[in-house]
């Protein structure tokens, strides 16, 4: 009898453990499903904010919008409809205001291999699915590449037309440990950098992870994505495209040569991350050359 009792007890324990395992698995799946939406919303918000960082509409160091006046950036406050007005560093935007501004002034487009713009609606492409499906592959490798227009800080004219303040391009590559994702914003001239940001990276804290920090990102505004030759001339049809992260300081490695305009200081102890960033910019921006050429030609005609 004792043997039968122990056998029944062991069996009972196993059944209990199996049932408990199923219950725990069910609870975890429910929690995962419940958290999926807020997690995706948090990721969308972070990507939206980093686009504004690249476009220099949002200053992450002081948690404030900013606008450019007389050649300098000053704190700004949100006044609705995607518009900003001069403010102060204590005018911290809400999450809703950041998302409203992005929806009003950051407009997604697709670019074909000839540099022609298409809307997602024209191509009957669902933007959310397109972005999610092709993120790891990289949008620059696609026949229809992703680009965002940065609309100006004023109302559109009566015909609804506008001249963009710049263009944001998603950047992706591989750092030291994993994939890195960010944005680079380009002036309407098709070659001058407005700013950059990295919204997802797993680089070493204090070293390669500095690519996501404002001090290092501040090295990029004003740099040129088309690399000039030794005489300072740029051939938009053939010149290399990208930004080189040097090992050391640009002033010491390259000096004041024209190539310095397409290079930034490296990060101490993060050479491999810097190499990954250099490759990410080259691989991402090169397929956009036809679009940059269109911008440059339009800007050149407009200045005549």
Question: What is this structure's SSE topology?
Answer:
Layout: H1 2-54, E1 58-59, E2 64-69, E3 72-80, E4 83-86, H2 95-105, E5 106-111, E6 117-118, H3 127-134, E7 145-150, E8 166-174, E9 179-186, E10 193-200, H4 214-217, E11 244-245, H5 250-253, E12 263-264, H6 271-285, H7 289-302
Parallel strand pairs: 11-12
Antiparallel strand pairs: 1-2, 2-3, 3-4, 5-6, 5-7, 7-8, 8-9, 9-10
Helix pairs in contact: 1-2
What does this 3D model show about the protein?
There is one protein chain. The longest helix has 53 residues, at 2-54. With 304 residues, this protein is α+β, with helices and mostly antiparallel strands. The protein is 36% helix and 21% strand. It has a domain at 106-302. It has seven helices and twelve strands.
In short:
It contains 7 helices and 12 strands.
Give the terminus-to-terminus CA distance.
104 Å
Secondary-structure element order, N to C? HEEEEHEEHEEEEHEHEHH
- Gyration radius, rounded: 24 Å
Poorly predicted regions: 1-6
> What is the β-strand count?
12
Biggest sheet descriptor: 6 strands, antiparallel
Q: What class would the helix/strand composition place it in?
A: alpha+beta
The residue fraction in helices comes out at 25-40%
Q: Tell me the overall shape.
A: globular
- How would you write the strand order of the largest sheet? 6-5-7-8-9-10
Mean pLDDT: 87
Task: Supply the number of helical segments.
Answer: 7
Percentage of residues in strands: 15-25%
